[in-house]
Amino acid sequence: MAERSAIEWTQATWNPVTGCDRVSPGCDNCYALTLARRLKAMGAPKYQNDGHPATSGPGFAVTTHPDTLSIPLRWRTGRTVFVNSMSDLFHARVPTSFVQQVFTVMAGTPRHTYQVLTKRPTRAARLAPALPWPANVWVGTSVETTGQLHRVEALRTLPAAVRFLSCEPLLGPLDGLDLHRVGWVIAGGESGPHARPMHPDWPRHLRDLCQATGVAFFFKQWGGRTPKAGGRLLDGRTWDQLPTTT
Prior knowledge:
This protein is α/β, with parallel strands linked by helices. It has helices spanning 31-41, 96-107, 121-127, 150-156, 201-213; strands at residues 3-4, 12-14, 17-18, 63-64, 80-83, 113-118, 137-142, 162-167, 184-188, 216-221.
C-alpha cells in the first residue's frame, strides 16, 4: 500500500530504511524522530529497534526493511515518491548491497519518479559508480546554513537526472550558494513546538538566486508551531515550481 504524503512537493513516501542520527543543526528538532517515538508506542513493527539511545533515540536505530522493497512494484499508477522520509539511504550503517537493491527497484519501475534526499552526499558520491542511475531518480541534499554548503559540492558530482536542495529548516542566510548543476531548490521554515524562526530575507534570497539562474524554486512553508501556521505565501504568492526533466 502507498504511504500517502502530506509533504507538498511529493505524492507518496517509501521507507525501505528507518532510523538516523544527528549530523547538523537541521536535525535538532527532527520530525522523523518524534514520529518514530509515537509509532514505537503504537507498536509499529518498523520502530521497535532502539539501538543506542544516546545517538538514535527510541525506535530510531538505523534499520533496513527488505520486506518493503517490493512495494513500488505493486503501485500500478505512476507517482512521485519520497524515498526514506524516515531515514537517510546513504547513512553509513545502510549496507552498500541494500542501497544497490533500492536503486534496482527504482530502475525497474520507470513509471514512478523517486526523490532521494540525503544529508550524506559524500557517501552517495563514493557509491555512485556501483549504482544504476535511471532517469526517474532525483537526488537532493539538505542545506540549512552555510555550514552545509560543502554538501552541494558532493551533490554536483552525482549522475542523477535531477539534483536538488532542501533548504528546510532554513536556519540562516545561504550566502555564497552556487547553483551550478542544481535543478531545483526547496525552501521552508521549521515547524513544531520548538520551531526556530526564519527571517523573510533568507527565502527571498534563494528565490531571487533561482530566478537569476533559471533554477526551479519551491517555497514549502513559513513554519511555526504547526506546518501550516505561517502559510505558504512568499511576497503574496505561492512558489510551486518543479524541475524540468528530459
